[in-house]
Prior knowledge:
19 helices, two-stranded antiparallel sheet, alpha+beta, 19 strands, globular, 512 residues, 3 domains, Arc Repressor Mutant, subunit A
Amino acid sequence: MERFLARHQDHIAGILSGFDRVLFRGTLRSISYVEGMSIFLASQKVLLKDFGAFVQNQSDRLKVYAKAFAESHDRPYQYIISSSVSKEAVAKTIMQRDNISEGLICVLSCVEPCQSYAIRKDRESKKLQLISATRKCLHFYFYFIDRDFGFMHVRLQSWFPFPIQVCINGREWLAREMDKAGMDYTREGNCFTHIADFQKAQEMADAGLKKNWPKLLDQFSQRYNPLVADLDIKGYYWTIRASEYATDIIFKDEIYLNELYRKLTHHAIEQFSCKDILRFLGRRTDGRFRGEATSNIRKRPEGIRVRHWVEENSIKMYDKQGCVLRIETTINNPRRFKVFRKAFRKGEETKAWIPMRKGVADTWRRVEVSRNANIRYLDALAVVGDQYPLQPCLDAVSKPVYKQNRRYRALRLLSPEEVKLFQSLLHGEFLVHGFRNADIRKQLFSNADMDEGKNRCIAKTTRLIALLKAHKFIRKVPKSRLYRITPKGQQIMSASLIFRNTNIALLEKAVA
């Protein structure tokens, strides 16, 4: 990311990273599976034949509570006839109409699909049995403006096992924190176009990650679902169902960003391969990956959005309010990533890299993965918008160079072999972490080549690295076997790839 910021530093006002939207999900684990629900019914002395009447009674209690809650706060209770209607849009309309600045806005209800239970008769035993089933039931949406978190909502399922969702917006929370600190800022929509002290704002955003989320979320669940305490059910277990972590770069000049963004979107769609997208999100690029990686570009009312999907997770780029470039990583399935924590191997406790959990305990790792993905993406975009003439650089690398009395040949910038090497080096992961001889060797040679002559492949890769180092395309990291690409190398290699992949008709037009 430093390269991108350095490239456009004269036009950047500041940078801010943090959660955008976070969707927490609370699960009553003791009754969220058939056996557990059966034990609960037995503790309540409810026979399976009375199951329907029992759960209907509990659902009715929630409905009465939701209506009474709205009435006690002198706010409307409204039934939404279709699940396709945007509840957030309805709530914001009511908020603006009634000029609500704090407290409950409204309570909305809507029939939506859910995962619950049903009673079926077993043909063999001719007895009733409890099964898990997909059905539809009433859901309640409590929209309100919280003193700390701003505009947010809680969604509660009215049928067993009563899962609950709490949706919080990180930018809403940060705005209120800056208000408490008396910091000057300008907010438009869901982003900041001006902040008096970006460094302090970033410190606030990072501090918010250390909150005791289970305690805070329990307060919401206790407020909106009284049945947990009334039925003596063990409290909610909290997970993050979906998270959006955004890095906003605020530009001083809208015209500059508009022109730059046009180039960024073109580069992201034309130049980023599936392997690049995998590396942005820290995924493997070898044969062990069996998923799907896709990219798309869409024009929306607020602007053009580029999005790259790797299975359930994604990274996207879009401009907001004319002066904000946002890179945002969305994690829907954290198990695609790893976290280093305690684990049991052969009955012994140890530490190992294991799949990340949905639980809030791994929030720090979720942030780390998302932030690194945004950084890799910006690093890969650092080559776009270069205004310096390439002729002097191209002339220099087109001639042999001498280093320590040794001659190194000129680079053939458009040859297939050289281009393949450039493509390997410009992968997003290598731009951030650097690369070793073995990393490039895997990109340049097939397994068959390695089987036939491994030492020959190693020697050839070593010579290519020495050649690039002599031309100052790469540099060695002290006291390690790592190499990093220099700004000069990134600039010329990217230009070479763009030139080779450009339609000749466009070049004729440019010359004309």
